[in-house]
Amino acid sequence: MERIYQPIIIEHFQHDIQMLFLAGPRQVGKTTLSYASQSLTHDFYYMSWDEKEHQKLIVQGSQAIADYVGLHKLMATKSIMVFDEIHKYRKWKQFLKGFYDQFKGNVFILVTGSARLNIFRRGADSLMGRYFLYRIHPFSVAEILRPSFHEDLISAPKKINDADFQALWEYGGFPDPYLRRDTRFHRRWLRNRTELLIHEDIRDLSRVQELAEMQLLADLLINQVGQLINRSSFAKKINVSVKTISNWLKILESVYYCFAIQPWSKNVTRSLIKEPKYYLWDWSLISDAGTRAENFVAMHLLKAVHFWTDNGYGDFGLYFLRDKEKNEVDFLVTKNKKPWFLVEVKLSANHSVSKALYRYHEQLKTEHAFQVVLDMDYVDADCFKHKAPIVVPAKTFLSQLI
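Given the sequence above, the corresponding structure tokens read:
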């Protein structure tokens, strides 16, 4: 199934010389996407750090790779070199910097990683100015409807097939379970992915030895999605320190198990500046329908702000709102550091518009304020034409994002 990222990869290599980094969770389709660039050259090479023979070549350095693929030969088109999971190599930034600086005239470089790439560290191994980063997400409503690149931030609404929407809701947006749509397969896939995530990725990328305890924290997070996290409570349940819990949460974020949303406090009267709220990259892990609905919308919004930012449309962010009187709105999307639109998520339409939505819409002067309802039927109307707070179907609203 075509992905919205494929034309972006091809366009990048047609116009830019910088390395292209594809980062995102395990099994989201990064390797498959990297092969989309094969159409641009006869000389396409793929190397994975997980392959022992490839490891040996990478450790030997840039010249060994160049000799292996023949970068010194005259070619009609530039080669494309894919380095998969190279972030597991301790000196990966130093290697890529040297390889890029020496051979950027001969080869395009694509790097994929299933852990958050720590690119921004200062020092001699800095890659500043040598790469563009794209964060790859699971399928969303809009991508299923429009697997092609478009220049507009907000699209016209489009109806998704009921079966496709139900599959996305039930099995999550990762390609294999979404496309397979089989409950037994989904259960096996979840078990296998969790094993790989905890017992391979975290083991390889960190010094954590207490993998059973890390697994327990991952399980506890499922029941805390969308809530303010109490690290002390987690520490007592797992019998580790609060500092350890904080470190482990960062590790779980780095391997794309979960993500944190910070509270927005600027221009909010009596704002509550406390812990972030956490959500999962795979909403299918959540059994409670109301919590899953919130996480479902959170992932769609995160995908949109990442896509818009990575493609140069501006600086976009995702936050939540809460004050000391417990007035709360689930999500605030910002554009260039300014509030843009609000989103409150409801499972059912049996609710009037949230008072907090009105309150923060007026206080922050947002352009739009939506109460997004999961069980409403699709309405063929543009949500973003409305300036006052309004109740909208998730099927309509999400179709207008990315």
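The longest helix spans residues 183-205. Try to locate this feature in the token string yourself.
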